[in-house]
Amino acid sequence: MNRKNVREIIIDIIERKGKVGSGEVARAAGVTRQAAHYHLRRMVAEGLLEARGRGRGSHYLFSRVASRGSGGSSSTNMGFLYSRAGLEEDRVWSQLEGKFGNRDTNDDRILHYAFTELLNNAIEHSQGSRIRVLIEKGMPLAFEIDDDGVGIFELIRSSLHLPSHLVALQELSKGKLTTSPEKHSGEGIFFVSKAGARFEVESNGLKWLVDNTILDQGIFSSPGRKGTRARFELVPGRNRPLEDIFAEYTSEFRFTRTRTVVKLFAHGVNLVSRSEARRLLNGLEKFSEIILDFNRVAGVGQGFVDEIFRVWARQHPEVELIPTNMNAPIEFMVQRVIAVDSAPTRDRPL
Question: What is the C-alpha separation between 39 and 32, in angstroms, rounded?
């Protein structure tokens, strides 16, 4: 059993009984006492638990910081555990903003924005019972928000009736996606993913990583966890103002642009079929300008390109498609389809 599952068991027992010992953890989790003790000591080091007693009488309980969601710690890594019911992100930020240490005004605004957006997402959508906040002081400056709910990709999949968690991840990465349109615009996580040095979301067996230091992103298998873990990293003093990030994806004060990295959400680097194109384009009609990033895609099929740049483009003439980072063969295929579609009927090949 991995560490995250053992941690969940520890939290469950303490919530029910108020305390736990290593022997009880070992029995409940199916691990050795030594392994249970290791996990307990890690949680003490993170500020989540306090150790009491000695020998066989030793036990662990939530620390004053973790159990109340307030207080302080001198550790570089600080953990805070909250009950989700009645939690408000602005009050949590007010309690914890000083834990990040000294920072300039721009970094403060970015941290405030990212922290409250991600915490609000956990509060309003996770459907869990508790939320953990971890703050890491250092280089980079980082925080994590971890809940025990249904998982963000499962929530999107079930709400939008999508076929898989992978497709749900793809939809999230496009931006302007929300399962509660009456309350949210769907832009928050998208902009958070662009605001810092690195951003990741781990849930339902998948992890989405956005690395803005190299302008790339990736998707990884990540089995064995419950709920959602979101992590945000920021390098102090090296960040664009939020206004510049918003402006890059905004026209006339409305969110209009998204960047879809084609390679990451396909089952390979060669994209051939019309069905792949339809999955990629699903939901993108909400935008007026779309950047299709072909970085490191090796090749495309005629059907894939035709579906995007002729069929879909005709159906949505108000949307501008901007292909970028194409290699020579892909650019040839795209330009050919565009040229054929714009040619007079008598000049088109049969």
Answer: 11
Model confidence over 160-219: pLDDT tens digits? 899 999 888 888 887 765 555 444 445 788 889 999 999 999 999 999 999 999 888 888
Q: What dotted CATH number matches 63-244?
A: 3.30.565.10
- CATH fold of 1-62 reads Arc Repressor Mutant, subunit A (1.10.10)
Two tokens, residue 220: 């990884």
Task: Give 221-250 pLDDT, tens digit per residue.
Answer: 887 678 999 999 999 988 988 888 888 877
**Quick one: what percent of the chain has pLDDT higher than 90?**
35
User: Which helix H or strand E contains 127, and what residues bound it?
Assistant: none
Residues 6+ apart with CB under 8 A from 195: 110, 113, 114, 232, 234, 239, 242, 245
Cα–Cα distance, 38 to 93 (Å, whole number)? 31
Paired tokens of 21: 């010992």
